[in-house]
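fyi for ur records
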Amino acid sequence: MSTAENAYGFIGLGLIGGSIARAIRQNDPEAYILAYNPSRNSLDEALADGVLSEAADGIDDTFKKCHYIFLCAPVGSNTDNLPAVKAHMSDDAIITDIGSVKTGIHNAVVGLGLSSHFIGGHPMTGSERTKYRNSKASLLENAYYILAPEKEVPKKEVEAFRKLVESFHSIPLILDNDLHDYVTGAVSHVPHVVSATLVNLVRESDTDDGVMKMIAAGGFKDITRISSSSPTMWQHICLTNKDNIVKLLDRYIADLQANRDKIASADKDAIYELFDSARKYRDSFSDVHSGPIMQEFVLHIDIADHPGAIAEVADLQP
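which gave:
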């Protein structure tokens, strides 16, 4: 059975799956978009929004209509769903995923004989908010969208999928599975572990009347914002990319110990270098005009603390 190239299926319709579906609908009002999600609420919302053409009751033969099938559940669930997808897909279907770990699903794809059908995907975007209701097409704009196609996938299919990603206003970047998992371990997975650990440190160290929680200011909130993300998703990620995460955490722990020793010995030059080298490297991210960390333009305005002050500034005319 052949399929129309503008027929899309989603298994899982949360924040990222919903954002991709919205981007497809925005670019192609005539596209056929099917989805299955364990929670019916997301499907009903997407049908009401006009994003979905049809909602499926499960992973069934309805998905044979779809040329592209997006696996948008947590990474472990995506792998678990592959046998059902294989049983209910068309002969020319392309399967992709959105998971931030690639090695596990790659191995499963190979084991199921689906290598000629699979293009791994990972949009490097997100939010601490979850669920379809928080999805938006703009979430994908100017974000790197990593592609990890299996070698057996026809080149024309890889190119067609790359163009689809570009239609989301994302930036496609092709990486192999191992490099992808190491890179995302460093820039995404370990930071989430660090953030969660820091939040729990404050929780466990706080006074009985919660003074730390009460006075937690911008810096603490900035570096721990990601701890509001889905614990289920991060449980799956830690279990499926554990080797890279452990390797990088070991290095981070060694660096923390070295920095602890610099502070304990009051080595002022080493302490200065710690913060100066980090500042210089972090500031260089702002020179990047595309990708997950955009060039920054900041306007600071001091205003009086009274009702309507922000509205007064917003209403200023040049």
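Residues 288-294 have pLDDT under 50 and may be disordered. thats all i got for now
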